[in-house]
Amino acid sequence: MFHTLLQTPAKCPVERPGKNRGVPTSGLITVSSAIFDVANGAKARVDRGVGLFGKNNEAASERLAVLRKVALFSTLKTQELKWVEHILHERNYIAEEVIFDEGDEGLGMYIVVEGEVKIQRKGASGKSELARLGPGSYFGEMALLEGFPRMASAVAAADTRLLVFFRPEFMSILETHGHTGAKLSLQLARLNCARLRESSTPLFPGSYT
Questions:
Q1: Where does the pLDDT of residue 209 fall: very low under 50, low under 70, confident under 90, or very high at 90 and above?
Q2: How many helices, marked H, and strands, marked E, lie in the chain?
């Protein structure tokens, strides 16, 4: 049986929703803790093939399959991965739409489900492309810890679907599911240490953003 993931509603800022269809374009997205408490009736909806956010099981399975490929979540058990999947937000961007700009406050981590993302940085001669990220890639994960300004811009290179893990929800996991939160924090530290060992150039991809 699931446990209540969040004890209080988590408010998740919309970083740059732009032209996302079916997604609020301003204000705050509130995730109620009641959504995550499946002990009193919600589990029946899941058993009938409807996810906790109205997603069907097929869509939830697709998202779980993506998360299993992400190194940050590689140490999580299936149940823990499901907790994370339930609190992710989906964002859709058209080609050349800005996901966030260099200098924007970092609000969360992005995972590419479909499409491609360009990571760009301003220079003396204009913008230079640092990387292109395809399905299964992630970027901006340092924003889970601090809201420092983004060190680069992220732009959709094609029509792109992303999953977003906002910092308030990561912090809620730390507070309410300490063991899972500790595993995520340790894995984040390991990944960044590995990148530091591999190169003296800017870390890829998180430190770009």
A1: low
A2: 6, 10
